[in-house]
Design goal:
The chain is α+β, with helices and mostly antiparallel strands. Helix content is 31%, strand content 24%. The chain has two domains: 189 residues, DD-peptidase/beta-lactamase superfamily (Beta-lactamase, 3-Layer(aba) Sandwich); 132 residues, no CATH class. Helix 1 runs parallel beside helix 5, helix 4 runs antiparallel to helix 5 and helix 5 crosses helix 6.
């Protein structure tokens, strides 16, 4: 096959370009997972809080990586007065809307929404385009969140003002999720916006804000774990500037193999996520796809492996190569 292959399966003594750099695509999320677990702890919980005082709704997002319509609906149902003012305290993450190396062709695509202080419904909406309903990313996630919140509250008041301000209050929690739940949402279906929010949240908790500072913390954290051969520009893998070796991915996976919330977050072959229609349940692994990139790294029968293909012309052929290589190496049925 006319593509650069990087394959590392230590248990089988298979080493093909394992020390060379490859574009990891969504295999980057393996490294983001390790950084988040090391920074936050396995029992970490995300939340946002709200309170209502004299017809004013106060909300602190607290850098929450995911707020859904169901979360807001549950909050609104607890509000017993006609709200006329919303005060949002949302400055926690200081995101870069489009990290370096993101492809301009991805603008507007559902899988590449701009990174924002708020991830509301994955920052994407369904639209009717040329007679077909398709998912697209929103241009202004904060405004999208505000308009949705206003719509839910208008049954109690038609005129609602919105202000942004730092606030100090103790309130009720909403949009609560454990780190394990967030990892599962991120890794099963390779949700890029979750990965970017998780990277920024982990940096925030460690006392740093913004993409550059969070990436620097992530780099130091991974180095402390024995990883050396990587260059990262985002947390999701959408950046074409990201580089990592199969050897370092295997090192990260070996560390993570003992962490249940990570292993449980990975797609299972033939069962769910991005591996629902590939391989079988003996394979638990993270896919990684970009134009000209096709990767798969994870576990098969408990063995750690990483297969990275760059310079891919035919994605179907590349997937078949990976699946065939694993099947022949492990006699998958």
């Amino acid at each position: 096959m006319k593509m650069l292959q990087g394959i590392y399966i230590p248990s089988k003594n298979i080493n093909i370009n394992a020390g060379k750099y490859f574009i990891p695509a969504s295999n980057t999320k393996i490294l983001t997972s390790l950084f988040a677990i090391d920074s936050l702890g396995e029992d970490y919980n995300f939340k946002s809080i709200f309170t209502v005082r004299e017809k004013t709704l106060y909300i602190k997002t607290l850098g929450n990586p995911l707020i859904t319509e169901e979360d807001i609906d549950g909050m609104v149902k607890k509000i017993e007065v006609a709200v006329d003012t919303i005060i949002l305290d949302i400055r926690y993450l200081f995101p870069t809307p489009r990290p370096q190396g993101w492809c301009v062709d991805d603008i507007g695509m559902s899988y590449a929404p701009p990174v924002s202080e708020i991830n509301y419904n994955f920052n994407r909406v369904e639209k009717l385009i040329h007679g077909k309903r398709v998912m697209v990313s929103v241009n202004d996630p904060v405004n999208y969140f505000i308009n949705s919140l206003k719509d839910m509250l208008r049954g109690k008041n038609n005129r609602i003002r919105v202000r942004f301000s730092r606030t100090n209050f103790d309130g009720e929690t909403f949009a609560e999720r454990s780190l394990g739940e967030i990892l599962k949402i991120m890794n099963k279906n390779s949700e890029n916006i979750i990965a970017e929010m998780l990277l920024l949240h982990s940096g925030m908790v460690k006392g740093k804000t913004g993409l550059k500072a969070s990436l620097d913390l992530m780099r130091k954290s991974l180095i402390s774990r024995g990883l050396r051969s990587f260059r990262l520009y985002d947390g999701s893998g959408l950046s074409y500037y990201n580089l990592v070796t199969p050897m370092d991915l295997v090192r990260a996976l070996e560390i993570l193999s003992e962490i249940k919330i990570f292993v449980d977050s990975l797609p299972v072959g033939g069962k769910d996520g991005t591996l629902k229609n590939r391989l079988n349940s003996r394979v638990i692994a993270k896919t990684g796809t970009l134009n000209n990139v096709q990767n798969l790294s994870g576990y098969i029968d408990g063995d750690t492996f990483s297969i990275m293909l760059n310079g891919v012309i035919d994605q179907k052929e590349a997937k078949e190569f990976i699946d065939s290589f694993l099947s022949s190496s492990y006699h998958l049925i």
